[in-house]
Amino acid sequence: IHFVLLISRQGKVRLTKWYSPYSQKERAKVIRELSGLILTRGPKLCNFVEWRGLKVVYKRYASLYFCMCINQGDNELEVLEIIHHFVEILDRYFGSVCELDLIFNFHKAYYILDELLIAGELQESSKKTVARLIAAQDSLVEAAKEQASSISNMIAQAAK
Amino acid sequence: MALSGMRGLSVFISDIRNCQNKEQERLRVDKELGNIRTRFKNEKGLTPYEKKKYVWKMLYIYMLGYDVDFGHMEAVSLISAPKYPEKQVGYIVTSSLLNENHDFLRLAINTVRNDIIGRNETFQCLALTLVGNIGGREFAESLAPDVQKLLISSSCRPLVRKKAALCLLRLYRKNPDVVNVDGWSDRMAQLLDERDLGVLTSSMSLLVALVANNHEAYWSCLPKCVKALERLARNQDIPQEYTYYGIPSPWLQVKTMRALQYFPTIEDPNTRRSLFEVLQRILMGTDVVKNVNKNNASHAVLFEALALVMHLDAEKEMMSQCVALLGKFIAVREPNIRYLGLENMTRMLMVTDVQDIIKRHQAQIITSLKDPDISIRRRALDLLYGMCDVSNAKDIVEELLQYLSTADFAMREELSLKAAILAEKFAPDLSWYVDVILQLIDKAGDFVSDDIWFRVVQFVTNNEDLQPYAAVKAREYLDKPAIHETMVKVSAYILGEYSHLLARRPGCSPKEIFSIIHEKLPTVSTSTIPILLSTYAKILMHTQPSDPELQNQIWAIFRKYESCIDAEIQQRAVEYFALSSKGAALMDIMAEMPKFPERQSALIKKAEDTEADTAEQSALKLRAQQQTSNALVVTDQRPANGTPPVSELRLVKVPSMSNVDHSSADHGVTQENGTLTVVDPQPPEPSADLLSDLLGPLAIEGPPGSAVQSERNLVPGTEGVPNAEDALAIAPVGEQTNTVQPIGNIAERFQALGLKDSGVLYEDPYIQIGIKAEWRAHQGRLVLFLGNKNTSPLVSVQAVILPPSHLKMELSLVPDTIPPRAQVQCPLEVINLRPSRDVAVLDFSYQFGTHVNVKLRLPAVLNKFLQPVSVSAEEFFPQWRSLSGPPLKLQEVVRGVRPMSLAEMANLFNSFRLIVCPGLDPNANNLVASTTFYSESTRAMLCLIRIETDPADRTQLRMTVASGEPTLTFELKEFIKEQLVSIPTVSRGPAPPPPPPPPPTSAPAALSDPGAMLAGLLH
């Protein structure tokens, strides 16, 4: 997988992750081209678009298009189900995920994606494992926060 | 929001969302960037929380597509924060913001490394993820060993190891040297025993990348892959959480089958059998179900299984099963399956024997050409293109033409190019070809490039039978209203040349032809006017007896353009006017164009260049090779020497010759004339432009007298005949030999074939000899592909093998005649009797105008009978010691070695199937290699080689070769020496000298070189 894009129906970018090196200029161009290509496609067409010698596998969930770009020879359906797998994990994490969740918690989406894909390859196919790892990360952050606040409490107390 | 816990960030995102337009958004972003910039400037006052908040904002802004040219430093610095929350943000923002080429990343290498080798598991994960996602070459060099350690460490938990596997995969992609192949292959095999499916999935991805590059080292992984696949496919012992809609990890199944496709074959019958059982199960046991995701997942597995079956070249029964399955798929309602069915059917074309079954689905595929989905239409077009051959070309091309009128814009260009190529390649007769191209120009003129109509003109010019037909057709199209400009060009050209052949038909008198063409003149652009002027001049010339009225009309036009601002038009107008006033002289200069030299179609060449590596194209090539009909032989060789392309059409007929030319249709004569009468008043242009290709001949520089003069000067030099005119007129065909220049360097081609098993052995303007070889132990099977590149047959074809005494060779019957544009295959069996470096020679001759004879060395060389074998230290040393000295073990100091690094030398050895065994020799400047040699007398015999180099002087080395047979030791030693001392030159073995390399470029040589001419056609 060369990159992952989440684009809204209005063409707004919700998430981008690039596994092949693209400069910011190229990134913008890719997004522009693909929005034009994918958002205009009708509902009953196949989930694959050929583009610049590569293939983009996409799927629409409500108002959001999930796109992943792969090589010509890669297995398209496999990638299509990686998309769905990702969506299911997001859904489980946010509890029936909607576009707003992803907009305001785009950083969470990044964490989850990083547990799913590395180097553009599937890392974990168990939803349960991903959920467990993300929960562990969250609790680490929480613990650090509590620790910080308890220290600041102590300082505040001591200062009294 | 609660989850993010960062109010500032949420507020900013809301603000952005509330912006009414792009302008407002930009203002808001600029404000925020300004804010962040000032905050970062006095960094001291920033709390970790604020820092996190700002880098997230930066990433958000960046994601929206704005340039963020500062703050990278702050993001990177968070990586080295001691606490998890900051570190996590630092890693993730850095890996999203930067790519591998950013300098800032270097700053982080040390911190990243510390996190990787540190004890903190969560930090390890963060670091591995970053490197896996954006690691570049530098990361590869400095981190690979640490990552490897984590992957195979038994104390690491799966969550770290699966990340390490993919991280290593990334580093391997950036620098393949990071995985030490020798030790790593065993480790890799061990990794495949992994119980944790997450780690196994990642490891399998790594394996796919490794075997894609070099499967040799990973044979031991093959049975493990088959086992893993069996386990998954039978759902044995797969934890519930690793099933997806009831299917045991479809992704792992797909990856495993992908890995298996990189092994050329499966030797072990048991493994092969169990694999086929699994595949059969997948092929037959996959049903269409209601649930979309389950369906997709099971079909992902199914399509991968299909690909593996194709790769393994299963028996015909299973293949037809696959085609039947695909036939079903291309007709289903679900668009994804339809798309994939077509795509895989195109891949299936590569498999021999099933083309006929695929052809049965032609009607359904044609229906898909009208699918509402452009992705599916594209697949259908590619498939039709790939499956086209002489038997169905008419149907398919006609469908394409029909579709052209309704096709959407995005596809027309591709469609017309493909139709043109198919028409040319598989035309059952040439008049049909002319029909197709004219229709193409008529329907989609904008998309018909100049190459296409140039090609029609070439065909018409070279085939007399076609000329009246083409003229009639051209005349018909001119009657249509509002024709495309390209149509004007091609019809004007054809009618200028051949309208006199129609003179008796109604509406085809010179006058009528002239007036209907002239009607178009006001509508055309300046690039077409010169063609029209040439046509007028030709019409005038053909009008016998001359018609004063017509003459006055045409002269008036010439005079009008005498002051045209366009130099080309002006020159033509002036010259044609002057020439046509000369009366009889016009006859000779304006005579019909000579035949074009045979050349490869620029179109096909172009198509190959653009799609060189797509499966469809290879399928097409394959099919073109298999055609025994008049398919054009496809060459893929460019001219090896940098001959500047000469516009070969700048040839002029001299008066003394015109009668010869009219009476003779023989290619040979034309070729002779073409070679001898070249007039090239200017130095060859680096690239003759497209127009001059066809228009050039008539635009004679200077008065014709001087042109003739210069030819006379030229000819005696070439022929040694004092009377130039005699030489031209009577030079008998067939008396000279080898006036034909080979294309490319024969010696280099031979050298190259020593290293690979298929390629071109020889090529000249008329024939291409390709070779394909398979070697097994002491036996070999070569196939010679003799391809006639012309539109006329090659006759008196003779091929004789002169085998050296150590090879038994048997060539099957070579036909005496090769039909036009056909290719014949001649198998050649080889048996190696004993070790020797002598080389077999193919004495090949044919007649095409002249008699051509070449002697070609055949690449049945010593190293073809080697089989790589890699030995361990325990095996090597006892052997080495037991072969104690001459004649079984020979040593020699070799001087004058082509300097190369040890790695290069190792590569060279490996390419000759002498497998370098790293680590056996403690001295890093030495190299130890082993191989097995096969011949009838020696059977399989192990050979050991040791090279000791001198780092101070790379031009000398000491070589020791050992084997159980004295001759073998000697021959192998000499063989290696030859390779080390002079790589690309001719071997010093007793082989007869190869044909002399092409002489320094001369104009005639360039002329007969289609490659060079081709370059003239291509911009």
From TrEMBL, chain A:
One of its GO terms (cellular component) is AP-1 adaptor complex. It comes from the Eukaryota. It is found in: Cytoplasmic vesicle, Clathrin-coated vesicle membrane; Golgi apparatus. Pfam families: Clat_adaptor_s. GO terms for biological process: cytosolic transport; intracellular protein transport. It is a peripheral membrane protein. Residues 1-139 form the AP complex mu/sigma subunit domain. SUPFAM superfamilies: SNARE-like (SSF64356). One of its GO terms (molecular function) is clathrin adaptor activity. Keywords: Cytoplasmic vesicle, Golgi apparatus, Membrane, Protein transport, Transport. PANTHER family: ADAPTOR COMPLEXES SMALL SUBUNIT FAMILY. Adaptor protein complex 1 (AP-1) is a heterotetramer composed of two large adaptins (gamma-type subunit and beta-type subunit), a medium adaptin (mu-type subunit) and a small adaptin (sigma-type subunit). Subunit of clathrin-associated adaptor protein complex 1 that plays a role in protein sorting at the trans-Golgi network and early endosomes (TGN/EE). The AP complexes mediate the recruitment of clathrin to membranes and the recognition of sorting signals within the cytosolic tails of transmembrane cargo molecules. Belongs to the adaptor complexes small subunit family. This is AP complex subunit sigma. It comes from Actinidia chinensis var. chinensis (Chinese soft-hair kiwi).
From TrEMBL, chain B:
Signal peptide: none annotated. One of its GO terms (biological process) is clathrin-dependent endocytosis. It comes from the Eukaryota. The keyword Membrane applies. Keywords: Coated pit, Endocytosis, Membrane, Protein transport, Transport. One of its GO terms (cellular component) is AP-2 adaptor complex. SMART domains: Alpha_adaptinC2. Residues 985-1012 are annotated as: Disordered. A 1,2-diacyl-sn-glycero-3-phospho-(1D-myo-inositol-3,4,5-trisphosphate) binds at R7, G8, Y49, K53, Y54, V55, W56, K57. Residues 751-859 form the Clathrin adaptor alpha/beta/gamma-adaptin appendage Ig-like subdomain domain. One of its GO terms (molecular function) is clathrin adaptor activity. Its main location: membrane. The keyword Membrane applies. InterPro entries: Adaptor_Complx_Large_Subunit, AP2_complex_asu, ARM-like, ARM-type_fold, Clathrin/coatomer_adapt-like_N, Clathrin_a-adaptin_app_sub_C, Clathrin_a/b/g-adaptin_app_Ig, Clathrin_app_Ig-like_sf. Residues 990-1002 have a biased composition (Pro residues). It is found in: Membrane, Coated pit. It is a peripheral membrane protein. It holds the Pfam family Alpha_adaptinC2. Belongs to the adaptor complexes large subunit family. Subunit of the adaptor protein complex 2 (AP-2). Adaptor protein complexes function in protein transport via transport vesicles in different membrane traffic pathways. Adaptor protein complexes are vesicle coat components and appear to be involved in cargo selection and vesicle formation. AP-2 is involved in clathrin-dependent endocytosis in which cargo proteins are incorporated into vesicles surrounded by clathrin (clathrin-coated vesicles, CCVs) which are destined for fusion with the early endosome. The complex binds polyphosphoinositides. Adaptor protein complex 2 (AP-2) is a heterotetramer composed of two large adaptins (alpha-type and beta-type subunits), a medium adaptin (mu-type subunit) and a small adaptin (sigma-type subunit). This is AP-2 complex subunit alpha. It comes from Actinidia chinensis var. chinensis.
